[in-house]
Amino acid sequence: DFIPMAVPTILRILVPFAWLALPFTSLKPIAYFPTVVVFILLSLYLQPLTTVVGLFVSVAYITFLYITRKKAEIKPFKVNVTGREDGEVVLFCHGWPDRAELWAKTIPALEDNYRCVTYTLPHHAGREASESMWGLNFDESVSRIAATLQEELKKCKKSKALVVAHDWGSMLATAFERRFPDLVKRLVLVDVFFPPTPTHKRKWTAVLMMGIVYQYYNALTFLLQAIPVIGAPLADYMNSTFLRTIAKEGVRYTTPPDAACNYYYFYYHLNFIQEKLGLEKTYDERHQIDRKDPLPLCPVLFCYAQDKAFMFHNKSMIAKLEERKDGSKAVAFGPTWAERKNTKKEDRVGHWVQCNAPDKFNAEVRDFLARAGEPT
């Protein structure tokens, strides 16, 4: 009789924490959150006190850490410089979950004529004791990019640079260009092209859908690492589980990124909620950016892959880009999503355009940057 009596008690203890085992399954992120909701509801039913106390203590502790965090120091990133010493400066900005090595197939095509500058964002190559566990928010990131570029331009006695950016780096680069237009001559954006603000007036439904698909998962792993002892190992395992689903398209690093690099997903949704509730001004308002013309002020080359389930760009931005007379243009790569199934794997492009279609990408970038001296 002991075993039947013990089962309900064991279930009551285990169910509130059962969702922690989900990363060990083959669940995809889009199925992860509905499953977590089910477990939380079961937890509230089977063990209401344990669940409520556990959630309250965890949220309160993480909130306390966030409120009492130290602001990031605004300083230049550590950079790696290659190429022609007296060439025009090209600053490369990567996104998630990448690092400076992302540009390994791009820089060799440019370094004969340009001074190529790369950096790795905090925590993207492992946790860094010298950096806050909270990483960088969007304002801090843009300020550090500016500090980095200003330092490099000063070294080689130049006034402007060319910027090549991918993923979150593209969003940061567009915001950076609007805030510091005197520093940027031309801008190359890879696979992400939204107006120059991290939350850019999006609808609740659009942001919610993006969150459910994968962003809430990344934000959750970032926050979980704050829990003492078990937080970081659990968050890192969850992060690696998700990264394995996209590794076939992206860059494989000898040291896989850990959950500490997921901070932009947290700040993206935090800022969105704060702005919607009137608790925070929009990025545009904070930096006096006029939204009547949301495009970057300098000429832009936008390179994007067509063979993705959903796009990371705003179609209206491309239409406005193609109306310009300053040499700006958008270039599509790879087959369409409908054609993808009938396309060989080696011919697919995906989100990492510069890695999976390097020849065409490098040719487009070389041609675009070479025209930097032409009148616009």
Characterization of this structure:
With 376 residues, the protein is of the alpha/beta class. The chain has two domains: 2-67, no CATH class; 79-200 and 281-373, Alpha/Beta hydrolase fold, catalytic domain (Rossmann fold, 3-Layer(aba) Sandwich). It is built from twelve helices and seven strands. The longest helix is centred in the middle third of the chain and has 21 residues, at 204-224. The radius of gyration is 22 Å and the shape is globular. The model has no long low-confidence stretch (mean pLDDT 84).
The proportion of strand residues reads 5-15%
Report the helical percentage. Answer: 40-55%
CATH homologous superfamily title of the largest domain? Alpha/Beta hydrolase fold, catalytic domain
CATH level-3 fold name of the largest domain: Rossmann fold
Lateral arrangement of strands in the main beta sheet: 1-3-2-4-5-6-7
Task: Please mark out the parts with pLDDT under 50 across 5 or more consecutive residues, or reply none.
Answer: none
> Whole-number radius of gyration?
22 Å
Give the total of beta strands: 7
N-to-C span: 85 Å
Provide the succession of SSEs.
HHHEEEHEHEHHHHEHEHH
- Give the class-level CATH name of the largest domain: Alpha Beta
User: Count of helices?
Assistant: 12
Provide the residue-averaged pLDDT: 84
Which CATH architecture of the largest domain would you pick? Answer: 3-Layer(aba) Sandwich
- What structural class results from the helix and strand content? alpha/beta
Count of the separate structural domains: 2
- Globally, the shape reads globular
Largest sheet: 7 strands, mixed
Protein name: AB hydrolase-1 domain-containing protein
Pfam families: Abhydrolase_1
GO molecular function: catalytic activity
Keywords: Membrane, Transmembrane, Transmembrane helix
